[in-house]
Amino acid sequence: MKRTLFFILLSLTAAGLQGQTKSDFLMKGRALVERGKPDEAISLLSAALENYPERDVYLERAEAFATRGDYSQAINDYNSANSVSSGSGEYGLSRIYALKGDAATAVYHLELCLGSEYRRSEKEIMLDPSFSLVENRPEWRQFWKSDIYSSVEKGIAEIEYNLSTGNISDAKTVFTSLTGSYPGNNDLACAGALISFNEKKYPEALKTLDGILANAPGNEKYLKLLALTQEASGNPAGASSTYTRLIAAGTAEPELLLLRAESYRKTGETDRALGDVEKFLDLYPGDKKALSRAGRLSAASGDNLKALTYFSENLRLHPNDAECYIDRADSYFVSKSWDFAAKDYSMALDLQPENPEAWLNMGIARLSMGKKDDACFYFRKAFGQGNKKAAEYLSKNCIK
Question: Domain of 186?
């Protein structure tokens, strides 16, 4: 019976896949797993494999099987990924055997991973909770006693750590000490671009990234840094194009949709921005950040009724969140629905009293309703919290 139901679900899933890209499948599969629906993810990705029997689809389905606790099927998929691209499934196999408590086999596959093009950093491995069951086993400890990482890899890790703590000077010292010994190393060059980014020397970072991407046009790490640098340097159009490259390549990270949406918003492409946010909401229904963005983008496009729909849904799901009340209050404010705006600002201020902008808008709403004395109280609260605009309203309406 279960087998029959699985194939019925698989058929229905396949029918809904027409016109979707591999990236659509991967993002939806990952979102379903993160939402605690691995069975649906498995059905979706199984249907997708009929058109895309590729490494990344096998890897994503393997994660869904692992989440469901079906380690045998996960192992099969990781091996299938290896068959498509040698070494691509080894890290996943290492994680699975670690979860099974088999330290020796976990180490065996980790060694194969580190000897492949899909090599992982020491930091990523050490922070992976999958290995917690074997980290005190003798096989695991012995493995880490060997010389696994080269000097340049250790140096890049040190650079990234220093930058994460705001220590640019030490990061530059390490970078300088390595450049003479490792000329032409793309990963080291990327670390240099990251230093330039942190120093806000964006032209330098962009020049370096353009050079290394010419040699490795599909490198996900380089492309992500490029997009961040384009955004920071005031080139949101370039950033949106780079995010599109990442998405088109099959990067299974739904957050890229929100990042691209923000770039579209900055270039005035509101409809495209809203399309990306709505696509994210299809993956994560009820996400507070996405509902807020969808509402603001709808308001920016002139559709205040649609904006109110998003804001009201956000409040239904997050009834004790001040920002959700402020979003809807601002929308009512723009449409001059003063009574509704005042009610929402009042709720927001009960939850978040240290909000000078909300106090000011509350005062304007009350003033527009003909309640000057109330308005003056709110203008004083806003001014007391440092809102300079409130001074103008106080002088015009509250000083006799």
Answer: 149-234
Distance (Å, whole) CA 186 – CA 222: 9
Residue where a domain stops, chosen among 86, 116, 146: 146
Last residue of a domain, one of 108, 124, 146: 146
Q: Please enumerate in sequence order all residues whose Cβ is within 8 A of that of 96, keeping only pairs 6 or more positions apart, or say none.
A: 66, 71, 74, 75, 78, 130
Asked if residue 358 belongs to a domain, the reply is no
Report the C-alpha gap between 174 and 162 in whole angstroms. Answer: 10
Tell whether pTM > 0.85: yes
Residue indicated by tokens 């009512």? 332
Token pair 């849904």 is found at 313
CA-based nearest residue to 172, from 141, 151, 198: 198
Same domain, 57 and 164: no
- DSSP type of residue 398: T
The pLDDT, as a whole number, for residue 17 is 52
Q: What is the mean pLDDT of each run of 10 residues along the chain (400 residues)?
A: 45 54 96 98 97 96 97 98 98 98 98 96 95 96 94 96 97 95 94 98 98 95 98 98 95 96 97 98 97 97 95 97 96 95 96 96 95 93 94 89
State the CATH number of the domain containing residue 66: 1.25.40.10
Q: Are residues 37 and 125 in the same domain?
A: yes
Q: Does some domain include residue 371?
A: no
The answer to whether residues 247 and 22 touch, using CB atoms and an 8 Å cutoff, is: no
Q: Which tokens in the block code for residue 181?
A: 């010994």
Helix axes 90-99, 71-84, angle to 10 degrees: 160
Q: Is residue 59 part of a domain?
A: yes
- Count up the domains in the chain and report the number: 2
CA–CA distance, 245 with 220 (Å, rounded to integer):
10
> What pLDDT shows up at residue 399?
81
pLDDT score of 18: 56
Is residue 133 domain-shared with residue 164, that is, in the same domain? no
Residue 39, in any domain of the structure:
yes
Record the tokens describing residue 52, joined without a space.
């895309």
State in Å, rounded, how far the first CA of the chain is from the last one.
Answer: 82
